[in-house]
Amino acid sequence: MAVNRDVLGHRLKLGVIGPATNTIVQPDFDDMRPPGVTNHYSRIAVEDAEGVNDDSFVAATNLIGDNTLDAVRGVMPCRPNHMVMGMSAVTFYGGLAGAAKFTKAIEDASGVGATVGSTALAKALSAFPNVKRVAFLSPYFPVANAAVAQFLTESGFEVVRDIPLKCTRWTAIAEVPESRLIEVIKALDGPDVDAIAQVGTNLSMVRLATAAEAWLGKPVIAINTATYWAALRACGIEDRLEGFGRLLSEY
User: Fold this and answer.
1) CA dist 196 to 65, 69, 125, 193, Å?
2) Which residues contact 220 (CB under 8 A, 6 or more apart)?
3) Rounded to an integer, what distance in angstroms lies between the CA atom of residue 6 and that of residue 26?
């Protein structure tokens, strides 16, 4: 990749696309930003949906997906080198084929490469030797967890169990306390699980996942960590960063 003349983003400029209701992706990605890399956030127009349930979840997230390309076009004037999707649910729909179609739409609209959460998570899990059986948690409803399970299964993993937190408002996802997440991680863990993953980019778990790796002794992958790691590596940025788990410090 050509070196940018941008003073702060001389190594890499990332265009980050996320829902207007998401308050976690932007600070998470900025915390993981290596020197010479800059993140340029563009918000997807969406209202703070309330009363979301199993029947309406997919329709509501697809609406966000439909508005994604407007956000892509909105960030392109700063000439990012690569696009990063800061919303994960829609990237799991339709399995591997659905993820590829969604990614291609972003790349066609931007003219640069793109990283999305679903494929980033699969790459992150594959980075760890001998990880085959996984468990995951999400802020989603069961209908969306089924899509995540399908994607992971098609990617070669066995999904042992999963827990949907069923957050009924988009902004409520960012309000889930760490104490609740610790309970869920412990409920997911077991000798039949090689790794635990978290999806849902507005769920704050980057630092908790790092701590959980220490007390579980196995990989715990937060979607925001996986996505940012995959974007950096796709662009040739190989910096090893401490404080964000084994993925960024070892791979």
Assistant:
1) 26, 31, 9, 7
2) 185, 195, 196, 197, 198, 209, 210, 212, 213, 245
3) 20
Query: Given this model, what pLDDT does residue 1 score?
Result: 56
3-state SS assignment for residue 109: helix
Task: Give strand ranges (E) for 80-155.
Answer: 82-85, 113-115, 133-138
Picking from 69, 109, 101, 68, the residue whose alpha carbon sits closest to that of residue 87 is 68
Q: Give the span between the Cα atoms of 165 and 148, in whole angstroms.
A: 14
Closest CA to 203 of 148, 117, 138, 126: 138
Q: Where are the beta strands (DSSP E) in the chain?
A: 12-19, 37-44, 82-85, 113-115, 133-138, 158-164, 195-198, 220-222
- What's the rounded Cα separation, in Å, for the pair 174 and 201? 9
Angle between helix 142-154 and helix 57-66 axes, rounded to 10 deg? 70
Q: Which of 212, 213, 244 is nearest to 227 (CA)?
A: 244
pTM of the shown model: 0.96
Which residue bears the tokens 């007390």? 215
pLDDT beneath 70: ranges in the chain: 1-2
Which tens digit of pLDDT belongs to each residue from 117-145? 999 999 999 999 999 999 999 999 999 99
User: pLDDT tens, 141-178?
Assistant: 999 999 999 999 999 999 999 999 999 999 999 999 99
**Domains by residue range for the chain, with CATH:** 12-117+225-250 (3.40.50.12500), 120-223 (3.40.50.12500)
